[in-house]
Backbone:
């Protein structure tokens, strides 16, 4: 099931990073990898593991061509989606069952005890060394609070709720707990509680066993948000949570031009630029539950919607 890692695994300083992608998301995977490579320190030793939900040979060659930015090791791990056939999906959800792949990383990558998992819509703006070196020996994983933490923790009756787009995983502890042999039976029992797929599963299963990280390691938002734009410069890992990924391409455009998807990214960039220009001429939107923002010729006027 897994492709065994190469010689670099013998190096204790290797930074292991895992992604999950199908062929449709391969372009964004390429962009996220490119931002890692563009931001790495010279001595960062990167090993990428890709949970492969049907990435074409052409796309794999484009990913390998990222070595022109910086060197890295990479393994593509073929995943049989049939394993996840009983995992619930919200009706009309934009995600596929590939969202559940990360639950079995401890099995898919048996020779690694610690790994950083990231979604394909993450822009990396710093070396991953500081994050990867975080001490999680007493935890199953480390993560950042979800942007809708209050709503989701209340929904599931949890003290805190994290976002699963960036996860530092203690795979040794996963195996010690025999998580992968228990999780599907657990999902069957708790199916009615699961709305946000693997994210709900991990939050419910590992409640009180998670180390919470500074939000700079998973700054979530959309470019239309004034708050998000202000916080953007302080984030190390930027998580573009809008359904379309034009925001991601727009903000990482210079790096996007270093990939083999530059023509597709140029189209998305121009589309995003047109939209941004339109929004800044005149636009009215709800910034959050409490404020409305009116934009006129690039100037923002914030009007309270209701009392806090």
Residues:
């Amino acid at each position: 099931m897994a492709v065994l890692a190469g010689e670099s695994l013998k190096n204790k300083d290797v930074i292991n990073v895992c992604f999950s992608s199908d062929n449709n998301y391969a372009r964004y995977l390429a962009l996220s990898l490119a931002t890692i490579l563009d931001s790495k320190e010279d001595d960062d030793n990167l090993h990428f593991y890709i949970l492969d939900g049907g990435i074409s040979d052409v796309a794999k060659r484009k990913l390998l061509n990222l070595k022109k930015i910086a060197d890295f090791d990479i393994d593509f791990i073929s995943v049989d989606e049939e394993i996840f056939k009983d995992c619930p999906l919200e009706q009309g959800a934009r995600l596929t069952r590939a969202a559940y792949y990360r639950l079995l990383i401890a099995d898919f990558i048996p020779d690694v005890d610690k790994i950083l998992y990231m979604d394909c819509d993450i822009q990396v703006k710093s070396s991953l060394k500081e994050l990867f070196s975080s001490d999680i020996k007493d935890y199953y994983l480390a993560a950042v609070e979800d942007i809708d933490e209050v709503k989701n923790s209340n929904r599931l009756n949890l003290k805190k709720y994290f976002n699963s787009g960036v996860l530092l995983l203690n795979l040794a502890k996963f195996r010690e707990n025999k998580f992968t042999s228990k999780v599907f039976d657990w999902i069957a029992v708790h199916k009615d509680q699961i709305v946000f797929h693997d994210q709900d599963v991990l939050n419910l299963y590992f409640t009180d066993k998670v180390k919470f990280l500074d939000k700079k390691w998973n700054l979530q938002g959309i470019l239309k948000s004034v708050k998000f734009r202000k916080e953007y410069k302080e984030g190390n890992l930027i998580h573009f949570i809008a359904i379309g990924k034009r925001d991601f391409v727009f903000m990482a455009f210079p790096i996007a031009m270093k990939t083999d998807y530059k023509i597709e990214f140029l189209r998305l960039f121009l589309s995003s630029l047109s939209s941004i220009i339109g929004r800044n001429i005149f636009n009215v939107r709800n910034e959050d539950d409490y404020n409305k923002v009116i934009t006129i010729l690039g100037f923002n006027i914030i009007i309270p919607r209701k009392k806090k």
About this structure: The first helix runs from residue 26 to 39. The CA atoms of residues 106 and 175 lie 7 Å apart. The domain at 7-217 is CATH 3.90.550.10 (Spore Coat Polysaccharide Biosynthesis Protein SpsA; Chain A). The chain has a mean pLDDT of 88.
